[in-house]
Amino acid sequence: MFGLKMMVLLVFLVCLGLLVWLCVLLFSMLIHEWLIFLVWLGVPLFALLIGVVFRRRSKTLLGKISAVLASITIFISPHLVVIGMNYYYDEQVRKLCAIDGGIRVYETVSLPAARFDQWGNPDIPSKRYAKSTDEYYYESETHFYRRGNPSLLRDRNWIVRRSDGKVLGEIISYAHSGTNLPMLPINPSFMCPAVDSKGKPNLEQSIFLKENEK
Question: What percent of the chain has pLDDT over 90?
Fold first, then answer.
């Protein structure tokens, strides 16, 4: 009877620990910095306390094993939550990307081979830094669906011909970042489509062709 009560209590404490951590993580999206202390000290200490106290009080081998497992579960719960958050935001990026993500070319332009660098790019300047003599320039805009940690955004870049203002092509991408525990050196991120991925042309290479390639 005592063993059954101990098992029920351990399960309750594990669920309580997970609930508390979820609340902490949600709150950390608003106030991130000071919760570093709680994540890296509070949760491990709570896990250690549960393991030590209930292992000592358990009279059976099953109870002692359950106490250790409960302690481990509480300790790794932040990482499990982060894995779930990464999966959720990865899926959000994929869904948005499926709507209008990718490169769209409305007109191709032939340029002399001398205009291209060693990587095959014609080096088109941004509108901000373009000179009045630059025939082409690109513009960009970023829309944040969510700022902070984590962040979710839509990025649009397009190339314009100065003479008539026509948009020659555009690329729309979606990305998220910041779904990680505080102070970890790795910052998980995901972008769709992958810009300049190996074997695929970027926006400039898709619009501007060498004169003998069009």
Answer: 34
CA neighbor of 17 nearest in space, from 58, 55, 66, 71: 71
Residue 117 token pair = 């660098």
* Residue with more model confidence, 25 or 49: 49
Cα(192)–Cα(208) distance, integer angstroms = 23
Look-up of token digits 């869904």: 95
Q: For residues 189 and 204, what is the distance between their CA atoms, to the nearest angstrom?
A: 24
Contact 171, 71 (CB under 8 A): no
The rounded distance, in Å, linking the Cα atoms of 31 and 162 is 45
pTM: 0.68
| Interval 67-120: pLDDT, tens | 777 777 777 777 777 777 788 888 999 999 999 999 999 999 999 988 888 888
**Contact call for residues 74 and 39 (beta carbons, < 8 A):** no
The DSSP H or E segment spanning 146 is: strand 136-146
Q: Which two tokens stand for residue 109?
A: 């332009």
For residue 201, whether the previous peptide bond is cis, meaning omega lies within 30 degrees of 0, is no
Per-residue burial over 72-100, b = 16 or more CB atoms within 10 Å of its CB, e = otherwise: ebbbebbeebbeebbeebbebbeebbeee
Residue type, 104: R
CA angle 184, 185, 186 (to 5 degrees): 90
The answer on pLDDT for 147 being more than 70 is yes
